[in-house]
Amino acid sequence: MSATLAILAALTGLLPLTLGDGDYGNYSTSAKPISVNSSGIPIPPFSTHIVNVGMSGLFFSPDNLNVSVGDSVEFRFFPLNHSVAQSSFSAPCAPAGPRALFSGFFPVQSDGGRQRWTIQINDTKPIWLYCSQGPHCQMGMVAVINPPPDQSIGRYKQAAANATANMSPKDIQGGITGSASPPNVNSSGVAPEPTGSGTRSVPFGGFTLFLGLIFILIVL
Ligand SMILES: *[C@@H]1O[C@H](CO)[C@@H](O)[C@H](O)[C@H]1NC(C)=O
Ligand SMILES: *[C@@H]1O[C@H](CO)[C@@H](O)[C@H](O)[C@H]1NC(C)=O
Ligand SMILES: *[C@@H]1O[C@H](CO)[C@@H](O)[C@H](O)[C@H]1NC(C)=O
Ligand SMILES: *[C@@H]1O[C@H](CO)[C@@H](O)[C@H](O)[C@H]1NC(C)=O
Ligand SMILES: *[C@@H]1O[C@H](CO)[C@@H](O)[C@H](O)[C@H]1NC(C)=O
Ligand SMILES: *[C@@H]1O[C@H](CO)[C@@H](O)[C@H](O)[C@H]1NC(C)=O
Ligand SMILES: *[C@@H]1O[C@H](CO)[C@@H](O)[C@H](O)[C@H]1NC(C)=O
């Protein structure tokens, strides 16, 4: 009812109401941008989860992630020379078979965080990860994506500490390697979000408001 009054007020010139791009006043409830693919079809709001590798010690941060299917995890490498490799829960510090994810090694002297390796999450199965450099895995440089309730990162870490060897997978596979152009990481180690994912954002608020106005006019 108050919306109708507001529209009427606007129509009679008592209240300014504009429908220009990007100005939704306080009438729209859907000003949040919606992502669309290049055909204009709305797509779910996939997001990228950032994991820093060796940023301030021999660990992944964060090392425990819940990630939705379709989202990506972007690993950012810091000095000196780390990797991301996939093991099973029960046999840490060793490749999870011939299809194990592996980033390869990223020797980094400075500009930590620029070198990146990104994996897309295709299902909700747990992904157990470790750094296959030296004894880093045994020292606790491990992580998990989507752990099941009965298996924790803590238990994986304990088992890793007992591993007799730290082995790299044979093949670099499963992710996409890239690097960001500097400057990218400020002194807090926080970097800007990646850009150019092939999607764009279109605000529908103005259009929704326009349809609502037409509807109200018809009803009246
Ligand atoms: C919505 O109303 C609030 C409070 O009246 C105001 O601060 C805000 O700027 C308004 N937003 C827009 C987009 O006009
Ligand atoms: C956009 O998404 C629709 C629905 O998922 C799909 O059919 C279409 O092929 C997509 N277009 C492009 C260019 O990706
Ligand atoms: C992941 O989700 C589970 C179940 O909802 C929750 O208990 C756990 O705290 C979450 N972990 C993180 C790191 O958000
Ligand atoms: C990085 O570590 C790997 C594995 O230990 C090693 O083969 C490679 O030579 C190292 N690279 C540099 C530049 O130190
Ligand atoms: C690690 O090894 C010790 C000694 O062999 C053993 O007592 C302990 O249960 C092991 N821990 C795990 C988590 O496997
Ligand atoms: C998800 O699927 C893509 C395409 O098949 C593949 O390249 C990628 O490695 C998969 N991600 C994981 C974590 O296995
Ligand atoms: C680094 O960037 C983040 C996000 O933009 C910001 O919150 C933080 O204050 C910045 N830190 C410094 C030291 O500039």
From TrEMBL:
Residues 178-189 have a biased composition (Polar residues). This is Cupredoxin. Gene3D superfamilies: Cupredoxins - blue copper proteins. SUPFAM superfamilies: Cupredoxins (SSF49503). It comes from the Eukaryota. Keywords: Membrane, Signal, Transmembrane, Transmembrane helix. The chain crosses the membrane at residues 202-219.
